[in-house]
TrEMBL record:
It catalyses: gamma-L-glutamyl-L-cysteine + glycine + ATP = glutathione + ADP + phosphate + H(+). Binds 1 Mg(2+) ion per subunit. The gene is GSS. Keywords: ATP-binding, Glutathione biosynthesis, Ligase, Magnesium, Metal-binding, Nucleotide-binding. This is Glutathione synthetase. The keyword Cell cycle does not apply. It comes from the Eukaryota.
Amino acid sequence: MAALWEDVLYNEPVIREAALLAVDAALLEGVLMRTEEEPNASDVVNYAPFTLLPSAVPSALFEQAYAVQQDFNLLVDAISQNKEFLERTLASTIKVDDFTAQLFRIYTQVLEEGLAQSVFLGINRSDYMFDRGVDGTPALKQIEINTIAASFGGLTSRTLAVHRQVLKALGKSEEASRLLPNSPSKGLALGIAKAWELYGSQSAVVMFLVEEVQRNIFDQRCVENELWNRNIRVIRKRFRDVFEKGSLDDARRLYIDGQEVAVVYYREGYVPKNYDLQNWEARLLLERSRAVKCPDIATQLAGTKKVQQELSRPGTLERLLPGHVESIARIRATFAGLYSLDLGEEGDKMAATAIADPDWFVLKPQREGGGNNLYGEELRQVLEKIKDSPERTSYILMDKIKPQPSKNYLLRAHSPLTVSECISELGIFGVYVRQGKEMVMNKSAGHLLRTKAVEHADGGVAAGVAVLDTPYLV
Ligand SMILES: Nc1ncnc2c1ncn2[C@@H]1O[C@H](COP(=O)(O)OP(=O)(O)O)[C@@H](O)[C@H]1O
Ligand SMILES: [Mg+2]
């Protein structure tokens, strides 16, 4: 297959002009990020990094990813309600991983008290790469599912218009018209609005729980604006604000600054550095409350790498989703090889295999946000060091996915315009709402394509490695 956009890819004057237009279009459309220097002010902002050109995505795999999203929603929701499964799966991990252990402590404490929350809202993003098989055929393989603070649904809703314009400027109107509509920010807001409505208090607000450092605020604002458009009030608070001003009444309704909170949408709280003692207390207060947490702590735990690995064991999906034969088949088809490093024969064998052949594996700790995984020589060294200690159980092993690279230009403020060898990762957003035992919404809510230069093994857009992209189906 001829590479996409080959006719213009090396035409320097044409590319240069297209890049100027692209950056201005991104600014006009609101594909924005605050600067590294001033991450908490909007006086001066940059465009969020993006590809000059859309990247090729095999249409069959794109459809497959959409087709399995509702199944993943069901699965995550089922795991979040299965205490026995979470307990058993995370038992070895929480012995050695303090962060997961602390989340787990809050989880059990809240269950012991009894849940006040009766409406549940899940917003997740299932990420995939296209693994090149021995015969060259690409296959859809899940990298992970993000069940907390899955981002870039807002900005990606605005990237499409930029790529459409670039293609038109390059004389490719027909191709421009083939780019698929995509608006995760609308889909996410729809879920939040439904949860707000079911909570049932007109005067209650939606609270975005945000980080201390808020570089990616515009991504969140896209979702906020959709809520304001529906006349739903949105407030932005940090853990610190919750600690200082949050309280529960007798019915465990959550109040902050005198305002009742219907929905807490976490864009924070997924890595250890988000927490000090006060923030853990704030987290506990939120979890104990009647407010709809997106996600509740059980759903956050359902998104751990350890759970992902356990799902790939024969029989696990059948136990979690009894009777859902077709869903299970669709889910399982996306799994790459995943391996436990728990102490025992199975873990010993996998550790030895990975040490002998590190380039075939990725070593993953229970962390989110990019830049935590280990590859190649580093993987070998770390595993060699911990292979006989319980510490190894804080990691899982995964087969390394090897996609076919393609060429593109990665546009980033203050960076030279050069062609890069790239690989892409496709994410599908999922949204669901459950009231008591009844699923009242279960949808896919749009997609996100992120592309990075092949020399980076790890990392997303926020980590400064990947950039926003738009799929061009082939
Ligand atoms: N099995 C894999 N094969 C190849 N690359 C991977 C694999 N797993 C992760 N990566 C790369 O590392 C990045 C981060 O891994 P991920 O599992 O998504 O962790 P995080 O929670 O930090 O985002 C991914 O975006 C992808 O680029
Ligand atoms: Mg990831």
